[in-house]
Specification:
single chain, alpha+beta, five-stranded mixed beta sheet, 16 helices, globular
Length: 613
């Protein structure tokens, strides 16, 4: 090879590598604080009084601000808990006396002052937890600590979403604190480079135990609250978490954060991703008896650090006090996250719910075929309903997580076949990270284009059929690309050797209502066939008034096949009694086997796929 040509190739290679590794054009773009003489200067003081744990006291010190401005509380795109409902004693203090505060909307206030400097005072009166388990992402306080900050505590200056701020904690002596916010030389003061970072990094405070590890030199910590608790295998928890972090980092090349915190809490359920932390409900009994479930939650939420927080749908923009638009792209954000939560656990050698990838795929197909909503609504429609109002799909119920994982699994097979096994969904995730981890969010068309660029294949019909359309997935077509085939049979659902009654009905309550409404998950159920519909107001069951969801569940648990149940509902047209004869129901069983006479290409792709490569 000509030496000049060889030298040119090497130069171009390192130039391309430099561009890939350095997304900034100048060192000034890498700093967290950018100067503007028009930016407000903001400092929060968050106080917890151990003598009264019913509220969080907030002070928001603002200078360099116009005499008339607006403040608001952020509406989270997934779980808008509307903590503006709990704001109390809100007033503006200035050197010239109190300012004037006018409520302009539920989560929006106008502030009028003199002197361009003020301290906003308010309290968050924490709502009473109505059950023994609380949601892990919600603010709370107890004698042993709590979760504070985030969208539940902070107001922000509207129009100054990129303004940095400092947060000082005034908490009981001896309490520790864990947060993704940047620490400062003052151990009680933290820095947020923007409103998004401020509200996306909650603060765990109280009696906490922490374990640390590093991956590629990046610090990570696993935190448990409260401590001490009954013993569990902390070594297995921390080492397993580290293994998953290592596999995810290996997939993407490097972490997109300076440090990361896994914040696990006793007495809570659910979980929520953040830009460099995750809050997870992990009762100590679960840590003792079911680490598989805990690792599933950790894997899911941690992968969201890339796929949702960074690689985000176009509808997920900057913070806003208005309820964000529903997203059409959650089939990818949630579905591919579930896909990788399972796959990367296998690569890490962690326990999974299904023994093999074949067994896992059988379970996916079984659940998909069992749910008629996937034949009624497109992936984008079900994505929209994921965080939409209850009943958005009418008498159907569906999961964008399941549907997205199924579609992701089929796309992975297509990519492997089109590239002779040289590429997979791994390459798509890396490409999506390059293209859509900044200001620009993706659409389904962007996903189609990205995958097409990776595999060099035409995916127009796949997206028209399954993403924008509602055709049933042709599993046989895609399984055959790996030399596989499926058999599907429908069988009666059995419990203890007896046919199980069809109990596919639920009740729910709208946020602004006190009445119970019926929910139908499948119109072919005995409840749907009898004429009940999602949204009907429930009045009574067998002439007994039902006031709570628990009362309804108790009635339902007593039902047996052949029972006649009279359900009284209220509709705009009036009250109606509907007679339901409880029947049994069927569900599919799926078995995947290898085809005869598979080609060498099919065998090679299947072997790599089985191994999780």
């Amino acid at each position: 090879m000509d030496k000049k040509f060889y030298s040119l190739i090497i130069t171009l290679f390192f130039a391309m590598l430099s561009i890939a590794q350095n997304p900034f054009a100048h060192w000034t773009e890498t700093v967290e604080l950018r100067y503007s003489n028009k930016q407000p200067i903001i400092h929060y003081l968050l106080t917890v009084d151990s003598a009264d744990l019913s509220y969080i006291k907030m002070e928001m010190q603002i200078s360099n601000i116009p005499d008339t401005f607006k403040v608001a509380m952020v509406a989270h795109p997934e779980y808008d808990d509307k903590y503006w409902r709990y704001v109390e004693d809100f007033y503006a203090e200035t050197k010239n006396g109190k300012g004037n505060i006018i409520r302009k909307d539920s989560a929006l206030w106008q502030v009028i002052i003199k002197g361009r400097t003020t301290i906003l005072h308010y309290r968050i009166h924490l709502p009473t937890v109505e059950s023994s388990q609380r949601q892990a992402w919600k603010a709370f306080l107890s004698s042993a600590g709590g979760l504070v900050g985030g969208p539940h505590c902070f107001m922000y200056v509207v129009g100054a979403e990129l303004a940095p701020s400092y947060v000082t904690l005034n908490i009981p002596n001896g309490w520790q604190k864990v947060t993704g916010l940047t620490s400062t030389s003052d151990p009680n003061t933290f820095f947020a480079s923007s409103v998004f970072i401020l509200i996306d990094d909650p603060m765990m405070i109280g009696e906490i135990k922490s374990w640390s590890f590093t991956v590629d030199g990046v610090p990570h910590r696993v935190v448990y609250w409260p401590w001490p608790v009954k013993d569990f295998d902390t070594t297995k928890l921390v080492s397993g978490t580290k293994k998953f972090v290592e596999q995810t980092t290996l997939l993407f090349g490097r972490p997109p954060y300076r440090e990361y915190s896994f914040i696990l809490q006793d007495g809570a359920f659910g979980s929520l991703e953040h830009n460099n932390s995750v809050t997870i409900g992990a009762p100590v009994e679960q840590l003792t008896n079911n680490l598989t479930g805990v690792f599933s939650d950790i894997a899911h939420e941690y992968f969201h650090t890339w796929n949702l927080v960074r690689i985000h749908p176009v509808e997920y923009a900057d913070v806003d006090y208005k309820t964000p638009a529903l997203s059409k792209g959650l089939w990818f954000s949630e579905g591919l996250t579930i896909f990788y939560a399972d796959l990367l656990k296998r690569r890490a050698g962690l326990s999974t719910f299904d023994s093999t990838r074949i067994k896992h795929l059988e379970a996916l197909i079984r659940r998909y075929v069992y749910t008629p909503a996937y034949l009624k609504f497109s992936a984008e429609q079900i994505s929209l309903a994921s965080y939409g109002p209850t009943g958005m799909l009418g008498d159907y119920s569906a999961s964008t997580h399941l549907q997205g994982e199924v579609l992701g699994a089929m796309l992975d097979i297509i990519i492997r076949d089109a590239t002779n096994g040289k590429r997979s969904m791994d390459d798509v995730m890396r490409k999506m990270m390059e293209r859509f981890s900044g200001k620009k969010g993706f659409t389904s068309l962007d996903i189609e284009q990205t995958i097409s660029d990776v595999c060099g294949c035409d995916l127009r019909s796949f997206f028209q059929d399954y993403i924008f359309g509602k055709k049933p997935v042709d599993f046989d077509k895609y399984l055959r690309l790996m030399g596989l085939q499926k058999t599907l049979t429908w069988k009666d659902v059995m419990t203890d050797g007896k046919a199980s009654p069809d109990l596919r009905i639920y009740v729910w309550q709208a946020p602004s209502e006190t009445v119970l409404r019926v929910g139908i998950t499948d119109p072919s159920s005995c409840w749907g066939k009898a004429g009940l519909h999602t949204g009907d107001i429930l009045k009574s069951v067998n002439d007994t008034i039902v006031n709570t969801a628990d009362e309804f569940r108790q009635q339902l648990r007593r039902a047996k096949i052949g029972d006649t149940i009279i359900v009284e509902v209220e509709r705009p047209t009036g009250t109606k009694k509907i007679i339901v004869v409880v029947g049994g129901y069927k569900q599919p069983e799926v078995q995947i086997t290898e085809i005869n006479n598979a080609t060498e290409k099919q065998k090679r792709i299947l072997a790599h796929w089985r191994a999780g490569n």
